[in-house]
């Protein structure tokens, strides 16, 4: 991954932003030798953000189906109160 300093970013902003369109990876922005931010092409960010949203939704729906299946077969656990549920989750 390419990295650039804040000073270089200030001096070459337009050039760096133009190069992002063809870049395969984000550009790390360094301030005092520490990574402080990443620059990524907007279209790439939006596509990756949508992919992550869909993956999270898919995982959620799978977990709901598994919970429904457990409930239907009687394999689910009933809890007297929220504290009992939380105790079980932390065990």
Question: How would you explain this protein's 3D organization?
Answer:
The chain is an alpha+beta fold. The protein has 2 domains: 3-40; 44-90. It has helices spanning 6-11, 13-20, 42-73, 82-90; strands spanning 3-5, 27-31, 34-39. Strands 1-2-3 form a 3-stranded mixed β-sheet. The relative contact order is 0.09. The model has no long low-confidence stretch (mean pLDDT 92).
Would you list the SSEs in sequence order as H and E? EHHEEHH
**Unreliable segments of 5+ consecutive residues:** none
DSSP strand (E) fraction? 15-25%
Order of neighbouring strands in the sheet with most strands: 1-2-3
Shape: elongated
Rg from Cα: 23 Å
Descriptive terms for the model:
single chain, 91 residues, alpha+beta, 2 domains, 4 helices, 3 strands
